[in-house]
Design brief:
Layout: H1 2-20, E1 27-28, H2 29-35, H3 42-50, E2 62-63, H4 80-87, H5 100-103, H6 113-129
Parallel strand pairs: 1-2
Length: about 140
């Protein structure tokens, strides 16, 4: 029985990560497995996502490491996964793989808004902690 529970926990974690992938981005089975601390469990990530097609989990945003739509046959129609990605602005190479250099979502990187917010916070803290500038005193003449 514990094995079944741990599988459900793993699947729930996979689903939570899949929900974090923004529209217009994709991730890979391996990247999700690595984020969960089980880099060798990419196949298990695929099993989990195959079970959730037709739910609110954006399983169409997870592709293989080359950008191929290996899970497309689980979507009812072979073109549905690609259509969903195209509707979100994902672009493809001539061989029908996702342009990974453009659309790969890296879970370890911050979103573009976060660094700017962090920089403003640091800047405000530095300003608040810096000594107050006083009016510059004229130099004594060298005569």
């Amino acid at each position: 029985m514990p094995k079944k529970k741990s599988r459900k926990d793993f699947y729930a974690k996979v689903y939570a990560l899949a929900r974090q992938i923004p529209k217009g981005k994709v991730s890979t089975y391996g990247a999700i497995a690595e984020k969960l601390g089980t880099k060798s469990a990419a196949r298990m990530v695929g099993y989990a996502l195959n079970k959730c097609v037709g739910t609110d989990i954006p399983a169409h945003r997870v592709v293989n490491r080359f950008g191929a739509l290996t899970g497309r046959h689980h979507f009812g129609h072979p073109d549905l996964m690609k259509r969903l990605l195209l509707d979100e602005g994902v672009t493809f190479n001539p061989d029908d793989t996702v342009k990974m250099e453009r659309h790969f979502y890296d879970f370890s990187r911050k979103t573009p808004k976060e660094p700017a917010r962090e920089e403003r916070r640091k800047s405000n803290e530095e300003r608040a902690n810096s000594p107050k500038l006083t009016k510059r005193q004229p130099r004594a003449s060298r005569s």
